[in-house]
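SEQUENCE, STRUCTURE TOKENS:
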Amino acid sequence: MGKIGFLLQLFGLFAGFAAIFFYGSNLLNPKESNEKYGKLSIITQFVLITLSSIVLMIALVQSDFSIEYVAQYTDRSLPMIYKLSAYWAGQAGSLLFWGWLVSVFAFIEIFRIKNYSLEHKSGVFFIIALTSTFFLMLTNFVTNPFKTLDFIVSDGNGMN
């Protein structure tokens, strides 16, 4: 399960790079085609980060202690609400959560500012893509919430 979550967030990072490229290009030379591909990249990133977050939530609920993050912040005796809140209990989960929140707001902005000028939309989505991609760079390369253990512990450490 950890590998699936990691791949989803990794592909979300690639979608973020694509959005940065298309909206950055649009700031220099506005084109409708760049807007279309940039929007598709933002939506793709939102879907991938959402799926990645769902995978982490499932791992937390099922007490999948093969994932280091789950073993560090939950245990078998925790009530369900605390298992779910462990999603943002540690640094790795918090960074994924913030990246997801930024992608949610980006998805909402696609529909909210659809009638704005191409230059305005490009600037907004360029900054949003930079921000969400920054969080995904951290979760992919610095502190990965899907890092697997070489062994499976019988119970986790519980909430910190």
User: Anything to note?
Assistant: The radius of gyration is 17 Å. The chain has six helices and no strands. Helices lie at 2-28, 32-61, 68-73, 80-85, 91-112, 118-141.
